[in-house]
Design brief:
Structural class of chain A: alpha+beta
Shape of chain A: elongated
Radius of gyration of chain B: 13 Å
Number of strands of chain B: 4
Largest interface: A-B, 43 and 37 residues
Strand content of chain B: 25-35%
Largest sheet of chain A: 10 strands, mixed
Number of helices of chain B: 3
Largest sheet of chain B: 4 strands, antiparallel
Radius of gyration of chain A: 26 Å
Number of helices of chain A: 14
Helix content of chain B: 10-25%
Order of helices and strands of chain B: HEEHHEE
Strand content of chain A: 25-35%
Strand order of the largest sheet of chain B: 1-2-4-3
Shape of chain B: globular
Structural class of chain B: alpha+beta
Distance between the termini of chain A: 16 Å
Strand order of the largest sheet of chain A: 12-13-9-8-1-2-3-7-4-19
Number of strands of chain A: 19
Helix content of chain A: 25-40%
Distance between the termini of chain B: 5 Å
Oligomer: heterodimer
Chain lengths: 468, 100
């Protein structure tokens, strides 16, 4: 039996070695939030040579990586996975999924694989399933720290060996190399741990010999699906590689990819619009040309790939900070609103006296007054002041009970805090429900966001093959 | 002339958990050029608006999309205790009041 990658090779590589157009379908920009059927089915009708989907990101914050939990609901992940697996099996093309389970560490990968096996059993599907782990061996990272081969990405401080130990999960972003190993091993379905989103879509074309510049640029554009269109959206998109260019074509006919909208997508969530760094090299888009094909499609050419002289892996880790409890309450009293800052400071002082922090592991109290400056640290209060404000008081303590104790004491003293000129002596707060203090799970923070020089990528991203 | 009157998109987002990026997209060449030439959108001016050291703010015109990208460090790493905006998607407020 031929493997999935051999079937694609047969269909696109001519006897003269020339490459026919390759259709790459991006099913979902974040698997597990629902894939609209009309565009997904329209995509399948185009008979793509492969289907890819990204399932995670570092954007949703440190909790998911730290706790080993998915951001998406299990129910929705099952629905989306089943849709993609059935679609790919029907066409007999490979399905590649990156950053399994939101953050791509071992627990996320295991949970996703369990769902894949369950779907295969339920739907009577049989295929070769590849999984690729992305958990970084801690001794390897520590050795790299000692060899000064780890640098911070932005303002996060130098990585220490203690940080490596403290991270509950520590992953690296795999590149196209890992996916290609899985394809060469005959995989039909590839579920990868933490991965570069572009690698999901670039692995097949680069293995077949399509030029790397357009391949990587196309992958970067389509990984968010139809977000590169006007109006942007979540619908399935197809990128077609042809010679030295590629075209993008949303499977939702109302979402048009214009030269401007596609070019603008190069800005999205990127610090540098002209360069995208991957483990194996850098994509340069400075000379890229964006041209109209028709009112729905755009062709892009001229992007350039520069292979890396040094292989690198972006590493990410999150550590536990403590247990979090929050207090939620509103106020519609103009005098409470005008005095919000002094009231919260006064209440915090009392709370710290009544619930003395453990000196070894002191708790933190964090106030956010929505309506005033909770989202942005405005230098001056709004003028006029708002009619209503919302207090969120957060406590992070060593134990959940301690956090709850602080939040409940805060509730009571904030409710009844006296201040000069107070009129509403029955209570300063409106609680939308009770209990207004809520246990908010374990708090984590990113303590690793660095890039590590490596000699070889393969040993860091081990491949496992199984027949389901 | 206010920035909001000539920009079609004014947005902010993380570019990774340590970096904040603002994108300003314009409707036409004239708006883009006016914005590029404005003293209100220099790194100095943006640094003041966001209370950042001047050296940490970059302003990058991106002609293919008639856009200006602004890049600066986040105040705290995304999701750290005390963060106010994990995705960084609501940090564009000060740009809305910018006069060109």
């Amino acid at each position: 039996m031929t493997t999935a990658i051999e079937r694609i090779r047969k269909s696109v590589v001519g006897s003269d070695g020339k490459l026919a157009p390759l259709r790459v379908m991006a099913a979902s920009g974040q698997l597990g939030y629902g894939i609209p059927d009309p565009a997904f089915n329209a995509g399948l009708e185009r008979k793509p040579h492969l289907i890819g989907a990204d399932m995670g990101s570092i954007d949703p914050g440190p909790y998911y990586l730290g706790a080993g939990k998915m951001a998406q609901s299990d129910t929705m992940v099952r629905v989306d996975l089943a849709k993609c697996i059935n679609g790919a099996r029907k066409l007999g093309v490979p399905l590649l999924i990156g950053t399994a389970g939101s953050a791509g560490a071992a627990p996320h990968l295991a949970a996703t694989l369990d769902m894949v096996r369950e779907i295969a059993r339920r739907d009577g599907l049989h295929f070769r399933l590849a999984s690729i782990s992305a958990d970084m061996p801690r001794d390897v990272v520590k050795k790299a720290i000692r060899a000064k081969k780890v640098v911070p990405l932005g303002e996060i401080g130098a990585l220490t060996e203690a940080d490596v130990d403290r991270a509950t999960n520590l992953v690296g972003q795999m590149g196209i190399e890992a996916f290609q190993r899985a394809l060469n091993a005959g995989a039909d379905v590839i579920i990868a741990g933490r991965a570069c989103d572009s690698a999901v879509f670039a692995a097949v074309p680069s293995l077949l010999g399509y030029p790397m510049g357009p391949t990587l640029h196309m992958s970067k554009i389509i990984e968010c699906c139809s977000l590169c269109c006007t109006p942007g959206g979540r619908d399935t998109i197809i990128g077609t590689l042809e010679g030295d260019s590629f075209t993008v074509d949303s499977m939702n006919p109302t979402r048009n990819a214009s030269p401007m909208s596609v070019a603008a997508h190069s800005l999205y969530e990127q610090a540098d619009p002209y360069a995208v760094r991957e483990p194996e090299g850098t994509l340069h888009t400075k000379e890229a040309k964006y041209e109209v094909v028709d009112e729905h499609r755009t062709r892009v050419s001229g992007s350039r790939w520069e292979p890396a002289t040094q292989l690198t892996v972006k590493i990410e880790g999150a550590m536990r900070v403590g247990e979090r409890a929050i207090l939620l309450a509103g106020s519609a009293d103009p005098r409470v609103i005008a005095n919000a800052k002094s009231i919260t400071a006064g209440v915090e002082k009392i709370v710290r006296e009544l619930t003395p922090p453990n000196p070894a592991k002191p708790y933190q109290i964090i106030w956010r007054v929505y309506g005033i400056d909770a989202v942005f640290p405005w230098p001056t209060p709004p003028d006029p002041l708002p009619r209503e404000i919302f207090f969120m008081c957060e406590c992070i303590a060593d134990t959940a009970e301690e956090a709850r104790a602080v939040a409940t004491v805060t509730k009571q003293y904030l409710l009844h805090h006296g201040f000069p000129g107070r009129l509403s002596t029955a209570g300063n707060l409106a609680f939308p429900f009770t209990p207004p203090e809520v246990a908010a799970s374990t708090a984590y923070r990113f303590n690793v966001y660095h890039v590590m020089d490596v000699d070889s990528l393969e040993p860091l991203f081990p491949l496992h093959i199984e027949e389901v | 002339m206010k920035l909001v009157d000539i920009a079609k998109v004014i947005r902010s987002k993380n570019a990774g958990p340590t970096t904040l990026t603002l994108d300003l997209l314009f409707n036409d060449e004239a708006g883009f050029k006016a914005a590029c030439a404005s003293k209100s959108l220099t790194a100095d001016a943006i640094a003041k608006l966001y209370s950042q050291p001047r050296a940490k703010v970059e302003v990058l015109p991106y002609p293919p999309a008639l856009a200006i990208k602004i890049v600066m460090p986040r105040r705290v790493v995304s999701g750290d205790p005390g963060d106010s905006d994990v995705y960084g998607a609501q940090q564009h407020g000060p740009m809305l009041a910018v006069e060109l």
